[in-house]
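thought: fold this chain, then report.
action: predict
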Amino acid sequence: MVPIFSSFIMMLVSTLKRCFVRAFLAGLSFFLLLCVSGCSFKTKQSSLDPKGPIALAQYDLFMVTVWVTLFIFVTVGGALLWVVWRFRQRPDDDDDHMPNQSHGNPLVEVGLIVASILLLVIIAVPTLRVLVYTFELPEDEGSKLGQWYQGPLTEEDAETILTVNVMGYQWWWAFEYPQLGITTANELVIPEGKVVKLNLRSADVIHSFWLPKIAGKVDLIPGRANWMWIKADEPGHYYGQCAEFCGSAHAYMLFRSDVLSHRDFEAWVEYQKKDAPEALEVSVAAGERLFAEKTCIQCHTIRGNQYAMGIKGPDLTHVASRKSLAAGIMDNRGVDGRIDRLKQRENLFEWIKNSQHIKPGNLMYHDDAGLKTVPLSDDDVHKIVAYLQTLN
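observation:
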């Protein structure tokens, strides 16, 4: 009876071991599949598809680190597997036998220490080089505004590169171009092939400016002046976001960057310098009046509207020309990449009507004069949207 029971137990243990191994391998395969599914060079915010010199330098540094660590993993892991296999217990081994013990090999120990130091140096040298390169503004004569920008400039501005003052708010971005006299929100527009300096400031909490395909990320810290420089190799529409947790709507603090040719950039600047058009149509004028009556003017600026001079929220002077809304959350573009007016109208209506649902905690809803306390009918919202869509 006992031998039968023992055989049953051994068979059960063996079966459980096989089941455990199979379950482990299945789980490991599923985990690796998930990991591989995240590997892509074509995602909107992939650091593996650099489009600027800083992003390229950081990518090269990343690959150096990957190859060094892969070499360490293969070497150490291979040695471990060889030792486990070479000194495994065999069926005819004596269970009470004690292998010969040794203190170690000084030559091997010193060699491993030296090898570790060399590997760290291989990583450290390019790391320091990239750090210096990233935070040292290039002396690029061709990037000076006077060399390529045809618009009016002061003598001082003509001898400097394009500068953009970036201000982070909960949860949106303001972009001011002091040399050009324009301000926009949530969409950074820069010329291709030119060095641009970004002055980074925060109006409230710590944020982090991250534009992965063009540059790395730098924190915006209250009370501290940070900066970075960027340069885009080719025109395109790029995606960025805040990379530092900054509150309940941190995940919705996105922004876009349009890289334009020199001619298109100059045309964009001249357009942005213009005031908003006068509301001539009756329905548009009604929307303009509601924009003032419903306290929108307390937070937003619209150049050309003598009453709209608020600074709490984004500048809306040319809001209808922007390809996104609500700090990059709502895309106004159609399948051809151009602004879809119908889609934009729907987005504006949805944002004004349900901003708290789209971006919880936003000040447009929760401020003292926010939409939480302001009655707005659907007809009111449609009229305001009609007015905002003329700001293009």
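thought: worth noting. The mean pLDDT is 87.
final: tokens above.
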